[in-house]
Specification:
By secondary structure, the protein is of the alpha/beta class. Helix content is 37%, strand content 19%. It has 7 helices and 12 strands.
Length: 234
């Protein structure tokens, strides 16, 4: 399998959209698509269904080749210091997935891809995902095909949204991306949209992208290929 480059952005809202749009244009100039991690609600009372500008931008970006990934429902912590889907039982995860899926469907953004906030999905969440039609679970160390039960390993390196943001860490991300690409591995870069207003963060991600491309990584997005199992899950 040829080496790939996947760039994802989380924390998308009206407040982060201007910097995200600029970042997206810089990636577009490099022919690099983006996997957009979207949550119907965020802390501080934000609701995607009340933000027409961001919804329209997301719809347009997906039609241009970017991917939409469900990234939780409302950022709620189910236990102290644990992310939203980290400890949920199956029936609890099921309720949140139904609510999130319904919201994105109404907005024209329905997706079959899921990445848990904090990259941590409980056993109950993993059980509930395929029951609600989700095909791909994107984790910190692997992506799991929920229909085939297969796993593609490869660690995410990122800035913000659970990752560090200090200058030394930004340099580490760049070096790690180059090392992975040089070895022929898949480079999985993640950045919080809240950090893209910082020139040093934005430049670090772009430097990592450029190095991955220089070493021959093929840019792509998170996606699920139905292939021969389509008849089994229809």
């Amino acid at each position: 399998m040829p080496a790939e480059l996947i760039v994802s952005v989380s924390g998308i809202s009206d407040r982060t959209l201007p910097h995200l749009d600029e970042f997206r244009n810089q990636l577009h100039a490099r022919s690099v698509p983006v996997s957009l991690f979207v949550a119907p609600r965020l802390k501080g009372g934000y609701r995607l269904d009340s933000d027409d500008t961001t919804v329209d931008w997301l719809v347009t970006r997906r039609s241009a080749g970017d991917a939409v990934v469900l990234h939780g429902f409302d950022e709620a912590a189910t236990k102290r210091l644990r992310s939203e889907f980290a400890t949920l039982l199956a029936h609890e995860a099921n309720l949140r997935l139904i609510a999130a899926d319904r919201t994105l469907e109404q907005l024209g953004l329905r997706t079959r891809l899921f990445a848990a906030p904090g990259w941590t999905a409980s056993t109950g969440t993993i059980t509930a995902l395929p029951r609600n039609g989700f095909r791909l679970l994107i984790g910190l160390y692997e992506t799991i095909d929920l229909m085939r039960g297969s796993t593609l390993r490869g660690r995410v390196i990122g800035i913000g949204a659970g990752f560090l943001t200090e200058p030394w860490w930004c340099r580490t991300v760049v070096l790690s991306a180059e090392r992975t690409a040089r070895r022929g591995g898949t480079v999985r870069l993640a950045v919080s949209a809240r950090q893209l207003g910082k020139p040093a963060v934005r430049q670090a991600v772009l430097d990592a992208v450029d190095l991955a491309l220089m070493h021959g990584c093929s840019p792509t997005v998170y996606q699920w290929n139905p292939g021969p199992v389509l008849a089994d899950v229809a």
